[in-house]
Structures are given as C-alpha cells and as structure tokens.
Amino acid sequence: MTPSKGLTHRPTVTGTRGMVSSAHPLASLAGLRILMDGGNAIDAAVATAAALNVVEPYMSGIGGAGFMHIYSARDKTQKVLDYMGLSAATASLDQFADEATRLRGPLPILVPGACGGWLEALARHGTMDPLTVFTPAIEMAEAGYAVTAKNHEFISSAADDLRQHSGPAVSYLIDGRPPEPGQIITQADLATTLRLVAEGGVEVFYTGELGQKISEHLESIGGLLTAEDLRGFELSWQDPISTDYRGFTICGPPPPCQSGQYLLQLNMLEAYDLADLGHNSEQALHLFLESGKLAVADRTTFTGIAAPPIAGMLSKEYAASRRDQIGDKARSSGGETFAPHLESDQVHPGDPTAWMKTECTTHFDTVDAEGNAVSVTQSLGAGFGSAVVVPGTGIALNNLGRWFDFVEGSPNVIAPSKKIEMPMSPVQIWDKDGLRMLIGTPGSYGILQTTPQMIMNVLDHDMNIQAAIEAPRVKTSHGFAADVETRIPDEVLRGLERRGHELNRIGDWSAGVGGGQGIWIDPASGAFTGGADPRRDGYALGW
Questions:
Q1: Beta-strand (E) ranges in 235-334?
Q2: For the purposes of burial, counting CB atoms within 10 Å of the CB of 274, is it exposed (0-12), middle (13-18) or buried (19 or more)?
Q3: One of 135, 243, 361, 441 is an active-site residue; which one?
Q4: What does each of the 543 residues of the chain score in pLDDT, given as a tens digit?
C-alpha cells in the first residue's frame, strides 16, 4: 500500500506514465515535456537540470556540480554519477586566510562538473540527442520567464555580490536591480551557451570556446582555476552505499559524499518504535537530535580520509554502540564541520574500524513508465555560487570550494586538485519487490538531517510523500543549539528546552531546513505519487 496519512498544504500529484518533481514548476514542466515527447527519465532529468539553470539560477547550473543517482531499467543497475570537480591545482590553505575569499569571488571555484555530468548521463542512458533535451531550457532563456516571489527573494539576497563580482555580465538584474515578482528575465548568453554545448559536446566546455572564456576571465580577475584544471576534469560512476531500515534498503552516494551520516543515524533510530512515540513528539525529536550529533561527529572525522571505514560506520553493531550514548539530556555538539579540539563533555566520534574485523543546493527526481528513475542533487555552493558570471556566457561559476575546511588537520582541508566532501546526497529507497521512493533536498549540511526526517515520515509514520515533505523539521547545529519550525507544538518545544536543547525558532515554514522533492512508486499498481516543497518553489508534475 502507498502511505496515505498526513495533512498537506498542497494536494498530492499522481501519474502512471511519468513524473518529475523539482524546485520550480517550469523546470518540472520541461522534464515532463521530454517524457511526453518520448524521452526516458534520464532525458527528463537532464532537461530539468538545464531548465533549473534558467529559472532557479542561484541554486544550480552548468557552472556547478553534483550527483545523479540513476536506476537503469534496461541494465537493471543502480549507479551514482559523481560530477564533482576538483579544486585548482594551485589551491592551498594559506590563500584563504581572509574569510571573505572563501565565500565569493574567484578563489573558491572548483572545476564545474555539471556539463560533463549531464552529457555523460545522456550518452550512457538517454534516448534523445542533447539539443532536443536542452531545447525547453534554451527556449525559456531566450523568451524569458516570469519571476516568482522566491526568485525575487533569492536574487535580492545576492544582488550586491553579483554587482561586485560580475557587474554588466549579470542578466539576473534589470537596470541593476533585482527583478520584482512578475517581471520577465531573459538570458540570451546562457541560451547560446546551452546551444553550444548541445551541438559541440563536452569539448566545447572543457577545452574549447567556453573553456577558454572561463579560464581567461578567471586569470584576469585573479582566480586559481586554469585551462589545465578544466582540461583535466574527470567524472566517475560509483556503486551506492546502503543500509536496511524497517525492511527497506536506503541507498545513497558513497564517500566523499556524506550520505553515510544519515544512514548511520537511521541505523541508530531503528531500535526505537518511532511510530509509537508519535510524530515530532518530545521523545522522538530528542532521539533524533542526539543521534544526529553522534552521526555528525563520525561524518566530520571519517568521511574525508583516504579509506573511510564506511562498512564499520554502517554496521548495526556500530550503530548500537553509538546509540548507547544517547541519554535523557541534550549533549553539546562540536558542530557540522571538523572540530580539531573537542571539549570532554562534547559528542566525540566513535571508532568504526572496531566493527570491521569480520568485513574488510537543488534536488529533483524523475521516473518513467519503463522503470528508469533518477534522483539528483546538485549545487553552485551558495546563491549564484562565487557570484562570478563569465562575460558573454551566462555561466555563473560555483563557489563549492567554500565547503572545504580551512583548518589544519581536517580530512576535508583545502588542498591542490582535491575532491571535496559534499552533503548533496540523492536517495533511492527499495524494498524486496523494487524501487519505492526517490527523495532528496538542498540545504547544505542540513541535507543530512532533513533527508532522514522525510524518510521516517513515510516509513515510520505512513505519511504520503507530500505530507512527508511538508511536515515541520528540526536541525541540530553547534553546541546545544537546534533550529525548529514552530508548527511543532509549543509544549513539545518547551519539553526539549527542559532537556537542555537551546532552540532557535525559525518560523512555521523555513527554507533554512531544505526544500525537498520526492516521488513514491506504488508497489501494487506502479503508479507515481509526487511531492514538492512549498518552502521554496518546488512543484511535482505527472501524466
């Protein structure tokens, strides 16, 4: 049976031949258009990605990177396409002493991987040519799209940085000002870029005309990334990692993706009858926050090392040993990044190697009637990434380098030509009979806490996918602090405070705890039910 409980702000969306759930209705429409024209879920995913570059340009785009979690019905394989680029070959810790240089401008730019990833996915699993797949995005970029309230909000928040680092290269501002809701943005340069890539392939971007424009512009403004860095870009196909939870197999990308954090947390929480405790009850939320702190401590310590002990981290025995440290009172966390010096009373990492002795910021989903399924999380690193837009191209370059640690001794410290740890972690969930759910969210390190909450809402509390995405969320951070949405009853929040949690009430609905999208697949009929997050511009469409 399909989970059916939960009140929703929006109706659920259903379909039988295909579905797309993304962070913007026009992007979902682009993907659905490809499905209706005979494309498969991989074609639709790339069309959605390109369209998001147009209508949600601050979150992802061809200048960014990400992970694409693909199930191929033809090959009967589940693989993760990792298109995260490396840091510049000349990057070093001493270049980032000024904190401002870590966030914006030409220094924190990693090699953009999205172009290579999109085209590789089409070449391996698609059925349509790139120009056909990119056409909806190209048309929207040329003709323009009407700005939403959320578009206005996000563009406004980055406007000063865009003016500083890109000036006249920016097409997102109208007469130098953020567009108001209802105004129309056109992006002719981006349309030309997408057409060049569709017709000329990856070489245009990494070694040809576009690559030359990127490298020359970065050289002119003091960037680290060079033509040689672009030329050396490589992507990889990987096997997902997984754990079993309540009879389902939860699958996420392997390290250096950080999905091991929520897989470990689910293992810890599996021992509790969360359904009996009640959704977002005081005890259930306390267990979630405390198990989250333990999982964070392990993730920041082990994910970025040369041979992460992922088998140990995901063993049920190790989860039990970590679970034993959860008490009735809140404990202090070292935070979401590597902490070189933890106080004695703070949550410390465990030793997952001890359990290995017997065994060596957008998200979208697509699915089609043949059973192909794609779950994608990709990012620019921050709103418009580095705020550097390459003149004449419409390419907003990422600042994903900001997700390195800038602390000596961290496994995730900035270094030359280095792969970064990333919280982006698109999920596929299976049972013994097949694929049941695709889900994920943006939200930086909060991805790793929002994702398990949405999963538990479905698997523990029998919520339909829309209700599971809409339900109020919490997120632990540094020390005793936790962000909480205030749709959680105040008596529950006061109870958490009595246990020592220091709550930051972030309002009824906050984009600060993500913007999830998901699709549920009915085990009996094969029908699709889509959900999308009203915290942002999310929308699901099916047919």
A1: 236-238, 241-245, 248-252
A2: buried
A3: 361
A4: 678 787 788 888 999 999 999 999 999 999 999 999 999 999 999 999 999 999 999 999 999 999 999 999 999 999 999 999 999 999 999 999 888 888 899 999 999 999 999 999 999 999 999 999 999 999 999 999 999 999 999 999 999 999 999 988 788 998 888 999 999 999 999 999 999 999 999 999 999 999 999 999 999 999 999 999 999 999 999 999 999 999 999 999 998 888 999 999 999 999 999 999 999 999 999 999 999 999 988 888 888 778 888 899 899 999 999 999 999 998 988 666 555 655 555 665 565 544 333 333 799 999 999 999 999 999 999 899 999 999 999 999 999 999 888 888 888 899 999 998 888 889 999 999 999 999 999 988 889 999 999 999 999 999 999 999 999 999 998 889 999 999 999 999 999 999 999 999 999 999 889 999 999 999 999 999 999 999 999 999 999
Q: Residue 305 — left, alpha, or beta (φ > 0 → left; ψ -120 to 50 → alpha)?
A: beta
Active site residue 361: yes
Contact 33, 47 (CB under 8 A): yes
Cβ–Cβ < 8 Å for 442, 362? yes
Question: Which residue is listed with tokens 């002795």?
Answer: 357
Whole-angstrom distance, CA of residue 295 vs CA of residue 42: 32
Among 42, 40, 59, 31, smallest CA distance to 140 is for: 31
Q: At what angle do helices 188-200 and 41-55 cross, to 10 degrees?
A: 150
